[in-house]
DNA sequence: CCGGCGCCGTCAGCGTCCTGTCAGGTCGGC
DNA sequence: GCCGACCTGACAGGACGCTGACGGCGCCGG
């Protein structure tokens, strides 16, 4: 699940990116309208979080251009302007949802998940898989009722597999999600997976030899 | 559900009161800043609808005073359209939402309901967690019956974690909330948390290493 | 105007937990 | 049965977060 976060304020952007990544999304952040337009036009995203007040090109113009060229990914609009007219404009420009600042992070996450789910993805905040219960907001996991203590890295790996549970995730992709630019060897990932499996039991994280890892809902 | 409507223009006030009452709220209306401040400070409301241009005391000053003395009811600010600076000031002063004039009554009602739901969904003003009792209106905490003396900063941190107890709050988000634009180092926050914990005991403020802090209802 | 007090940010030190690496071991495919 | 892909237990360096001490600052009373 890839998200494009368009936000010029560094501080807000940092929090938004952290929240989305913590929820298992892969996040790309850009800070100005032109870059946003180009990035959204040339790459595929499952969701765009779009601020309206942007340098170099207004957010609404970016959105209109995307829609004009046929890009139809769900777009969640953030704006400092709360006026009724702005909202109508936003909706007419093709926004799927609208979140006035200031907002609570959990609200952003809830709406992001709702949009992605509506678009065919998956992801309520609390999900059950057999004896396993995963809470994406609290970043907590219980197994047969007992809390499972996951480290930050383990959690991010699990959440990523969970959000992308429809497919097999390659090791390089997971490495990229977990470590970003400063790379690690493949074995680092294997170690993380091993620790995850020990804590979660079998039947949760599967391996497709030669391809990567995947989340198996059918725990046993 | 009690609403305090602060508005000096009689015509607008009449419409606002009518709309809110029609929506099932019990409405108290005052027309000047001083009365507003006193009323909001001495009585409990589930929501305040606050106009900024007021006689006898400016709306922003009223809001700041309430927040300074720990009143945490949701406040919906009304103001003249397009005043960008006012908006920023309002948010910094502690407004929960913002509605520029002129507005539609439906818009006012929608936002009013959203604010009340957001605040009310999290429970009453007085909440118990084990031996801990937190009163959000009086901004007081007791532990096994004994009052706990929290400083303003400690209280704000606790209240924020409490209100957001459904999720893990990142340090940067908490820093933002506590200090706004004039930033502090991460350690400042750690110190606040440490002092909070010493006063509240264990099992109240939890840490999720690598992610942030959270409120644990399960005290022990 | 002065002294005391409470608040709180900073610093340095410390313990704990995390995690990448290594050295094997195991499994699966051919 | 061979080879490579993957798993795993142990370990050590280091990141992260906690804490006690200190001192500056503002507020208040005298």
Automatic annotation (TrEMBL), chains A, B:
SMART domains, per the entry: REC, Trans_reg_C
Keyword NAD appears in the UniProt entry: no
Response regulatory domain: residues covered: 2-116
Modification 4-aspartylphosphate, positions: 51
Domain of life, source organism: Bacteria
Family matches, as Pfam families: Response_reg (PF00072), Trans_reg_C (PF00486)
DNA-binding residue intervals: 124-217
Keywords linked to the UniProt accession: DNA-binding, Phosphoprotein
Residues annotated as domain OmpR/PhoB-type: 124-217
Gene Ontology molecular function: DNA binding
Protein name in the entry: DNA-binding response OmpR family regulator
